[in-house]
Amino acid sequence: MDQSLLRTYLSTVYEFPTPSGPVRASLDGDIVSDPSSLPELLRRPFAVVTGYNPRSMLLPRKVNEQRHQVMRDLLVLGVYRVEACVGYEDDPEGTWREPSWLVHGMDRAEAMAFGRVFRQNTIVMCEDGRPVLVVTDPTCDDLGKTFVGNWRVRT
């Protein structure tokens, strides 16, 4: 995978909904010595998937929204608890924002399948309190290759 693209993925800030308000986090943090210090959501298994901009190709807003809604419908039919979240660049001048789905309890194999079907370069998994970027497009890198990160909670 292109190192610039990898750095962009790892530094993307995700805004996740929680009962106590949004949690903002990226995958580019330092090793967390005490996982219990992380917000509860970041210690539970989940996936972050999207239907937007397949293979990094910008699509019209209406097409992206339709793809994203189809993904949500399929996730809900799969009996997953799904919540809207968003990924964005942490740059005051940045304008990139990508709606995503936070899918509670989804396993890696199924999340990867959604990533492949919707032509995403990668998906994000939270496994054992650690974020993992998983390649789902074999034109980017080996299918299933993982890049382990560390949560960085943003304030």
Q: How are the strands of the largest sheet arranged?
A: 8-7-6-3-5-4-1-2-9
> Which consecutive residue ranges, at least 5 long each, have pLDDT under 50?
none
Average predicted local confidence, pLDDT: 95
The description of the largest β-sheet is:
9 strands, antiparallel
Structurally, the number of domains stands at 1
> Which value, in Å, is the CA radius of gyration?
15 Å
Main structural class: alpha+beta
Measured by DSSP, the beta-strand proportion falls in 25-35%
Shape, per Cα inertia axes: globular
- In oligomeric terms, what are we looking at? single chain
Number of helices in the DSSP assignment: 3
Question: Can you write the helix and strand succession as a string?
Answer: HEEEHEEHEEEE
Helix-residue proportion? 10-25%
Q: How many strands appear in the DSSP assignment?
A: 9
Q: Gap between N and C termini, in Å? A: 30 Å
Task: Kindly describe this structure.
This protein is α+β, with helices and mostly antiparallel strands. The protein has one domain (3-154). It contains three helices and nine strands. Strands 8-7-6-3-5-4-1-2-9 form a nine-stranded antiparallel sheet. A hairpin with a 2-residue loop joins strand 6 (122-127) and strand 7. 27% of the residues are buried.
